[in-house]
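Input C-alpha coordinates:
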Protein backbone atom coordinates (compact mmCIF):
# COMPACT_ATOMS: atom_id res chain seq x y z
CA UNK A 1 0.00 0.00 0.00
CA UNK A 2 3.01 2.26 -0.29
CA UNK A 3 2.47 5.17 -2.60
CA UNK A 4 3.60 4.71 -6.14
CA UNK A 5 4.17 7.40 -8.67
CA UNK A 6 1.26 8.06 -10.95
CA UNK A 7 2.04 6.54 -14.25
CA UNK A 8 0.81 8.61 -17.14
CA UNK A 9 1.03 5.70 -19.54
CA UNK A 10 -1.35 3.32 -17.85
CA UNK A 11 -3.64 2.58 -14.98
CA UNK A 12 -2.26 3.17 -11.51
CA UNK A 13 -1.51 -0.20 -9.96
CA UNK A 14 -3.31 0.44 -6.72
CA UNK A 15 -6.98 0.84 -7.64
CA UNK A 16 -9.03 -1.46 -5.43
CA UNK A 17 -12.55 -2.82 -5.56
CA UNK A 18 -15.07 -1.72 -2.94
CA UNK A 19 -17.75 -4.04 -1.62
CA UNK A 20 -20.43 -2.79 0.71
CA UNK A 21 -22.29 -5.69 2.28
CA UNK A 22 -25.53 -5.01 4.09
CA UNK A 23 -24.24 -1.88 5.76
CA UNK A 24 -26.56 0.17 7.91
CA UNK A 25 -26.50 3.17 10.17
CA UNK A 26 -28.91 3.96 12.95
CA UNK A 27 -28.05 7.17 14.77
CA UNK A 28 -28.29 7.27 18.57
CA UNK A 29 -31.56 9.22 18.35
CA UNK A 30 -33.08 6.26 16.50
CA UNK A 31 -32.92 7.75 12.96
CA UNK A 32 -32.34 4.96 10.48
CA UNK A 33 -30.20 6.88 7.99
CA UNK A 34 -29.32 3.71 6.08
CA UNK A 35 -31.27 0.48 6.51
CA UNK A 36 -29.52 -2.26 4.59
CA UNK A 37 -27.30 -1.20 1.72
CA UNK A 38 -25.11 -3.29 -0.56
CA UNK A 39 -23.04 -2.21 -3.55
CA UNK A 40 -20.08 -3.46 -5.53
CA UNK A 41 -17.71 -1.01 -7.21
CA UNK A 42 -15.18 -2.54 -9.57
CA UNK A 43 -11.56 -1.45 -9.33
CA UNK A 44 -11.02 1.65 -11.45
CA UNK A 45 -14.74 2.47 -11.79
CA UNK A 46 -16.47 5.65 -10.75
CA UNK A 47 -19.75 4.93 -8.99
CA UNK A 48 -22.18 7.74 -8.31
CA UNK A 49 -24.64 7.79 -5.41
CA UNK A 50 -27.62 9.97 -6.22
CA UNK A 51 -30.98 10.50 -4.56
CA UNK A 52 -33.06 13.11 -2.75
CA UNK A 53 -31.64 15.06 0.14
CA UNK A 54 -31.53 13.08 3.37
CA UNK A 55 -31.65 9.64 1.70
CA UNK A 56 -28.37 8.58 3.28
CA UNK A 57 -25.77 9.29 0.56
CA UNK A 58 -23.25 11.09 2.76
CA UNK A 59 -23.75 8.60 5.55
CA UNK A 60 -22.87 5.74 3.18
CA UNK A 61 -19.84 7.61 1.85
CA UNK A 62 -18.52 8.40 5.31
CA UNK A 63 -18.95 4.85 6.47
CA UNK A 64 -16.42 3.85 3.80
CA UNK A 65 -13.68 5.94 5.44
CA UNK A 66 -15.19 5.38 8.87
CA UNK A 67 -15.85 8.98 9.68
CA UNK A 68 -19.14 7.30 10.58
CA UNK A 69 -19.11 3.84 12.16
CA UNK A 70 -21.63 1.48 10.55
CA UNK A 71 -24.17 -0.08 12.89
CA UNK A 72 -23.82 -3.31 10.96
CA UNK A 73 -22.56 -4.98 7.80
CA UNK A 74 -19.16 -5.35 6.16
CA UNK A 75 -17.03 -3.03 4.04
CA UNK A 76 -14.38 -4.70 1.92
CA UNK A 77 -11.64 -2.92 0.01
CA UNK A 78 -9.98 -5.41 -2.29
CA UNK A 79 -11.57 -8.18 -0.25
CA UNK A 80 -10.21 -6.94 3.11
CA UNK A 81 -12.68 -5.98 5.77
CA UNK A 82 -11.69 -2.43 6.67
CA UNK A 83 -13.79 -2.47 9.81
CA UNK A 84 -10.87 -4.39 11.35
CA UNK A 85 -8.47 -1.58 10.59
CA UNK A 86 -7.44 1.44 12.61
CA UNK A 87 -9.70 4.22 11.26
CA UNK A 88 -7.06 6.95 11.42
CA UNK A 89 -4.52 4.84 9.58
CA UNK A 90 -7.19 3.75 7.09
CA UNK A 91 -8.12 7.33 6.20
CA UNK A 92 -4.57 8.00 5.02
CA UNK A 93 -5.20 5.51 2.24
CA UNK A 94 -8.60 6.82 1.26
CA UNK A 95 -8.75 10.13 -0.57
CA UNK A 96 -11.65 12.36 0.45
CA UNK A 97 -12.87 15.41 -1.45
CA UNK A 98 -15.67 17.57 -0.07
CA UNK A 99 -17.68 20.49 -1.34
CA UNK A 100 -15.81 23.37 0.25
CA UNK A 101 -12.52 21.55 0.02
CA UNK A 102 -11.37 22.26 3.57
CA UNK A 103 -7.87 23.45 2.67
CA UNK A 104 -5.76 24.67 5.57
CA UNK A 105 -5.85 28.47 5.23
CA UNK A 106 -2.46 29.13 6.83
CA UNK A 107 -0.55 26.60 4.78
CA UNK A 108 0.52 27.18 1.24
CA UNK A 109 -0.78 25.05 -1.61
CA UNK A 110 2.26 22.78 -1.72
CA UNK A 111 1.95 22.05 2.00
CA UNK A 112 -1.78 21.45 1.66
CA UNK A 113 -1.25 18.91 -1.11
CA UNK A 114 1.55 17.26 0.88
CA UNK A 115 -0.57 16.76 4.01
CA UNK A 116 -1.01 12.99 3.82
CA UNK A 117 2.47 12.13 2.49
CA UNK A 118 3.86 14.11 5.43
CA UNK A 119 1.66 12.18 7.86
CA UNK A 120 2.89 8.98 6.26
CA UNK A 121 6.44 10.03 7.08
CA UNK A 122 7.74 10.86 3.62
CA UNK A 123 10.79 13.11 3.71
CA UNK A 124 10.47 16.77 2.77
CA UNK A 125 11.97 16.50 -0.67
CA UNK A 126 9.82 13.56 -1.76
CA UNK A 127 6.71 15.22 -0.33
CA UNK A 128 7.40 18.50 -2.14
CA UNK A 129 8.14 16.70 -5.42
CA UNK A 130 4.97 14.69 -5.11
CA UNK A 131 2.91 17.80 -4.36
CA UNK A 132 4.30 19.55 -7.44
CA UNK A 133 3.67 16.49 -9.59
CA UNK A 134 0.05 16.45 -8.47
CA UNK A 135 -0.42 20.18 -9.00
CA UNK A 136 0.87 19.70 -12.51
CA UNK A 137 -1.58 16.83 -13.00
CA UNK A 138 -4.58 18.96 -12.00
CA UNK A 139 -3.46 21.78 -14.28
CA UNK A 140 -1.94 24.19 -11.75
CA UNK A 141 1.61 25.17 -12.64
CA UNK A 142 3.58 24.62 -9.40
CA UNK A 143 6.00 27.46 -10.15
CA UNK A 144 3.01 29.78 -10.06
CA UNK A 145 0.74 28.26 -7.47
CA UNK A 146 2.72 26.11 -5.01
CA UNK A 147 3.60 29.01 -2.73
CA UNK A 148 0.23 30.71 -2.78
CA UNK A 149 -2.27 30.43 0.02
CA UNK A 150 -5.81 29.11 -0.47
CA UNK A 151 -7.42 32.57 -0.40
CA UNK A 152 -5.24 33.57 -3.36
CA UNK A 153 -6.97 31.03 -5.63
CA UNK A 154 -10.37 30.94 -7.33
CA UNK A 155 -13.03 28.49 -6.14
CA UNK A 156 -12.35 26.21 -9.11
CA UNK A 157 -8.60 26.27 -8.46
CA UNK A 158 -9.14 25.43 -4.80
CA UNK A 159 -11.28 22.51 -5.88
CA UNK A 160 -8.41 21.25 -8.06
CA UNK A 161 -6.07 21.55 -5.09
CA UNK A 162 -8.57 19.51 -3.08
CA UNK A 163 -8.42 16.77 -5.71
CA UNK A 164 -4.60 16.95 -5.83
CA UNK A 165 -4.45 16.65 -2.05
CA UNK A 166 -6.78 13.65 -2.06
CA UNK A 167 -4.61 11.90 -4.65
CA UNK A 168 -1.22 12.81 -3.19
CA UNK A 169 -0.46 9.58 -1.37
CA UNK A 170 -1.86 7.44 -4.21
CA UNK A 171 -4.89 6.32 -2.20
CA UNK A 172 -6.59 3.00 -2.72
CA UNK A 173 -9.91 4.67 -3.32
CA UNK A 174 -11.29 8.17 -3.61
CA UNK A 175 -14.49 9.39 -1.98
CA UNK A 176 -16.05 12.59 -3.27
CA UNK A 177 -18.99 14.33 -1.57
CA UNK A 178 -20.64 16.87 -3.90
CA UNK A 179 -17.15 17.87 -5.06
CA UNK A 180 -18.16 20.38 -7.71
CA UNK A 181 -21.35 21.90 -6.32
CA UNK A 182 -19.74 24.94 -4.68
CA UNK A 183 -18.43 26.34 -7.99
CA UNK A 184 -20.46 28.21 -10.60
CA UNK A 185 -22.02 26.17 -13.43
CA UNK A 186 -19.46 27.15 -16.07
CA UNK A 187 -16.46 26.38 -13.90
CA UNK A 188 -18.24 23.20 -12.83
CA UNK A 189 -18.53 21.92 -16.40
CA UNK A 190 -14.85 22.57 -16.98
CA UNK A 191 -13.84 20.91 -13.72
CA UNK A 192 -15.93 17.86 -14.57
CA UNK A 193 -14.31 17.66 -18.00
CA UNK A 194 -10.82 17.93 -16.51
CA UNK A 195 -11.68 15.48 -13.81
CA UNK A 196 -12.71 12.88 -16.40
CA UNK A 197 -9.35 13.28 -18.14
CA UNK A 198 -7.55 12.97 -14.83
CA UNK A 199 -9.51 9.84 -13.98
CA UNK A 200 -8.61 8.34 -17.38
CA UNK A 201 -4.98 8.71 -16.26
CA UNK A 202 -5.16 7.64 -12.63
CA UNK A 203 -8.05 5.14 -12.86
CA UNK A 204 -8.95 5.31 -9.17
CA UNK A 205 -11.93 3.52 -7.73
CA UNK A 206 -14.22 6.39 -6.87
CA UNK A 207 -17.51 6.77 -5.03
CA UNK A 208 -19.03 10.19 -5.70
CA UNK A 209 -22.12 11.67 -4.11
CA UNK A 210 -24.18 14.21 -6.03
CA UNK A 211 -27.76 15.43 -6.29
CA UNK A 212 -27.21 16.52 -9.90
CA UNK A 213 -28.35 13.92 -12.44
CA UNK A 214 -26.40 15.58 -15.26
CA UNK A 215 -23.22 15.31 -13.24
CA UNK A 216 -24.03 11.68 -12.47
CA UNK A 217 -24.56 10.85 -16.15
CA UNK A 218 -21.47 12.72 -17.19
CA UNK A 219 -19.08 11.23 -14.67
CA UNK A 220 -20.42 7.86 -13.61
CA UNK A 221 -19.45 4.45 -14.93
CA UNK A 222 -22.39 3.29 -12.85
CA UNK A 223 -25.07 5.22 -11.02
CA UNK A 224 -26.83 4.08 -7.85
CA UNK A 225 -30.22 5.74 -7.38
CA UNK A 226 -31.23 5.79 -3.73
CA UNK A 227 -34.44 6.44 -1.87
CA UNK A 228 -34.94 7.31 1.76
CA UNK A 229 -33.13 5.13 4.25
CA UNK A 230 -30.45 4.30 1.69
CA UNK A 231 -32.79 2.02 -0.24
CA UNK A 232 -31.15 1.13 -3.57
CA UNK A 233 -33.64 1.56 -6.41
CA UNK A 234 -31.32 0.88 -9.35
CA UNK A 235 -27.61 0.49 -9.97
CA UNK A 236 -26.75 0.68 -13.66
CA UNK A 237 -24.56 2.37 -16.27
CA UNK A 238 -25.89 5.81 -17.28
CA UNK A 239 -27.33 4.78 -20.64
CA UNK A 240 -29.21 1.87 -19.11
CA UNK A 241 -30.55 4.01 -16.29
CA UNK A 242 -31.80 6.60 -18.76
CA UNK A 243 -33.24 4.19 -21.27
CA UNK A 244 -34.59 1.58 -18.90
CA UNK A 245 -35.43 2.94 -15.48
CA UNK A 246 -36.68 0.00 -13.41
CA UNK A 247 -39.60 1.91 -11.96
CA UNK A 248 -41.65 5.06 -12.37
CA UNK A 249 -39.85 6.46 -9.31
CA UNK A 250 -36.46 6.12 -10.96
CA UNK A 251 -37.86 7.44 -14.25
CA UNK A 252 -39.19 10.51 -12.49
CA UNK A 253 -35.96 11.01 -10.68
CA UNK A 254 -33.74 10.86 -13.74
CA UNK A 255 -36.06 13.35 -15.40
CA UNK A 256 -38.27 14.05 -18.36
CA UNK A 257 -35.42 15.09 -20.65
CA UNK A 258 -33.62 11.82 -20.27
CA UNK A 259 -33.97 11.20 -24.04
CA UNK A 260 -31.44 13.97 -24.66
CA UNK A 261 -29.19 12.78 -21.87
CA UNK A 262 -29.25 9.31 -23.35
CA UNK A 263 -27.98 10.69 -26.66
CA UNK A 264 -25.05 12.19 -24.79
CA UNK A 265 -23.89 8.82 -23.50
CA UNK A 266 -24.70 6.66 -26.54
CA UNK A 267 -21.98 6.00 -29.14
CA UNK A 268 -22.65 7.27 -32.63
CA UNK A 269 -21.46 4.21 -34.52
CA UNK A 270 -24.73 2.20 -34.64
CA UNK A 271 -26.44 5.20 -36.29
CA UNK A 272 -23.91 5.46 -39.12
CA UNK A 273 -25.01 4.38 -42.62
CA UNK A 274 -21.79 3.32 -44.35
CA UNK A 275 -20.76 4.90 -47.64
CA UNK A 276 -17.87 4.40 -50.03
CA UNK A 277 -14.81 6.40 -49.04
CA UNK A 278 -14.92 8.06 -52.45
CA UNK A 279 -18.56 9.25 -52.12
CA UNK A 280 -19.09 12.99 -52.38
CA UNK A 281 -19.66 14.51 -48.96
CA UNK A 282 -18.41 18.00 -49.63
CA UNK A 283 -19.71 20.87 -47.68
CA UNK A 284 -21.63 18.85 -45.13
CA UNK A 285 -20.66 19.12 -41.48
CA UNK A 286 -18.79 16.15 -40.08
CA UNK A 287 -18.51 14.43 -36.75
CA UNK A 288 -16.01 11.89 -35.53
CA UNK A 289 -17.41 8.37 -35.59
CA UNK A 290 -16.00 7.84 -32.08
CA UNK A 291 -18.34 10.51 -30.68
CA UNK A 292 -21.86 10.27 -29.33
CA UNK A 293 -25.31 10.67 -30.85
CA UNK A 294 -25.46 14.00 -29.12
CA UNK A 295 -22.36 15.24 -30.98
CA UNK A 296 -24.11 14.49 -34.27
CA UNK A 297 -27.31 16.22 -33.16
CA UNK A 298 -25.32 19.28 -32.06
CA UNK A 299 -23.57 19.42 -35.46
CA UNK A 300 -26.94 19.18 -37.25
CA UNK A 301 -28.48 21.92 -35.16
CA UNK A 302 -25.44 24.18 -35.52
CA UNK A 303 -25.61 24.01 -39.34
CA UNK A 304 -29.36 23.59 -39.69
CA UNK A 305 -29.06 20.33 -41.64
CA UNK A 306 -30.60 16.91 -41.13
CA UNK A 307 -27.64 14.79 -42.14
CA UNK A 308 -23.96 14.84 -41.21
CA UNK A 309 -20.90 12.93 -42.35
CA UNK A 310 -19.23 10.52 -39.95
CA UNK A 311 -15.45 10.56 -40.27
CA UNK A 312 -12.81 8.21 -38.98
CA UNK A 313 -9.19 9.36 -38.95
CA UNK A 314 -10.37 12.35 -40.96
CA UNK A 315 -11.89 10.20 -43.77
CA UNK A 316 -15.64 9.96 -44.42
CA UNK A 317 -17.02 6.54 -43.55
CA UNK A 318 -20.76 7.13 -43.52
CA UNK A 319 -23.76 9.37 -43.13
CA UNK A 320 -25.92 9.98 -40.11
CA UNK A 321 -29.47 11.22 -40.46
CA UNK A 322 -31.44 12.93 -37.75
CA UNK A 323 -34.01 10.13 -37.71
CA UNK A 324 -31.28 7.54 -37.25
CA UNK A 325 -30.23 9.20 -33.99
CA UNK A 326 -33.53 8.31 -32.44
CA UNK A 327 -33.68 4.86 -34.00
CA UNK A 328 -30.64 3.41 -32.26
CA UNK A 329 -32.07 0.52 -30.28
CA UNK A 330 -31.91 1.04 -26.54
CA UNK A 331 -30.11 -2.28 -26.21
CA UNK A 332 -27.28 -0.90 -28.34
CA UNK A 333 -27.09 2.14 -26.15
CA UNK A 334 -26.84 -0.05 -23.14
CA UNK A 335 -24.44 -2.62 -24.57
CA UNK A 336 -21.94 -0.08 -25.76
CA UNK A 337 -21.56 1.84 -22.54
P1 LIG B 1 -27.87 12.80 2.22
O1 LIG B 1 -26.39 12.81 2.14
O2 LIG B 1 -28.51 11.84 1.25
O3 LIG B 1 -28.49 14.15 2.13
P2 LIG B 1 -27.42 12.01 4.98
O4 LIG B 1 -26.62 10.77 4.87
O5 LIG B 1 -26.70 13.26 5.32
O6 LIG B 1 -28.29 12.20 3.65
O7 LIG B 1 -28.54 11.81 6.09
C1 LIG B 1 -29.42 10.68 6.10
C2 LIG B 1 -30.42 10.81 7.24
O8 LIG B 1 -29.74 10.72 8.51
C3 LIG B 1 -31.15 12.13 7.28
O9 LIG B 1 -32.48 11.88 7.67
C4 LIG B 1 -30.42 12.92 8.33
O10 LIG B 1 -31.27 13.86 8.95
C5 LIG B 1 -30.02 11.84 9.31
N1 LIG B 1 -28.79 12.16 10.07
C6 LIG B 1 -27.59 12.52 9.56
N2 LIG B 1 -26.69 12.71 10.55
C7 LIG B 1 -27.35 12.46 11.72
C8 LIG B 1 -26.99 12.49 13.12
N3 LIG B 1 -25.74 12.79 13.50
N4 LIG B 1 -27.95 12.19 14.02
C9 LIG B 1 -29.20 11.86 13.63
N5 LIG B 1 -29.61 11.82 12.36
C10 LIG B 1 -28.70 12.11 11.40
Amino acid sequence: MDATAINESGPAPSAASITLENIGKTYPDGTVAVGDFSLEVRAGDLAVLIGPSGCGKSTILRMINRLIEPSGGRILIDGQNILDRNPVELRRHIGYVIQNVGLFPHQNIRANVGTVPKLLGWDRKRTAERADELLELVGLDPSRYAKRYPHELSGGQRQRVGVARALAADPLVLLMDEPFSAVDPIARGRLQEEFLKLQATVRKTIVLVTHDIDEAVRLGDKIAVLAEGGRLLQYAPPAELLSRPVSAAVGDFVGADRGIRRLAVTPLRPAVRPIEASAATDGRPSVDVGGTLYDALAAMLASDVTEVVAVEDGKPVGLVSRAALFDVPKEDAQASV
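The two ends are 31 Å apart (CA to CA). The pocket of adenosine-5'-diphosphate is lined by residues 27, 29, 31, 33, 51, 53-59 (CB under 6 Å).
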